[in-house]
Input
Amino acid sequence: QVQLVESGGGLVQAGGSLRLSCAASGRTFSGYRMGWFRQAPGKSREFVADISASGRITTYADSVKGRFTISRDNAKNTVYLQMNSLKPEDTADYYCAARLPFTSGYNYWGQGTQVTVSS
Output
């Protein structure tokens, strides 16, 4: 079982920055691919970014490419999402998720942290 706890959300003006953190329990964090997703009010959940277990490979949604950076510290069992140049359309609940090796989907999810970007 893996428990994920997000933090770092809040209210920020457009153009500002926030850094989200996701702390994971468990001894095998370094074996998980980690992802960030978001869900805006009235919309379905969408992929934001993910990072390989080693941290060497990252992917991003087109909507955040060049503005958001995903990273991880396996010694601290933590994955981060640095969000710069925030836009009102980035307003959403942000969730981190863990994907076990050799699985096709994300297996564990955090409770989410709210990000609100004012114009």
User: Anything to note?
Assistant: The chain has a mean pLDDT of 95. Residues 23 and 78 are 5 Å apart (CA to CA).
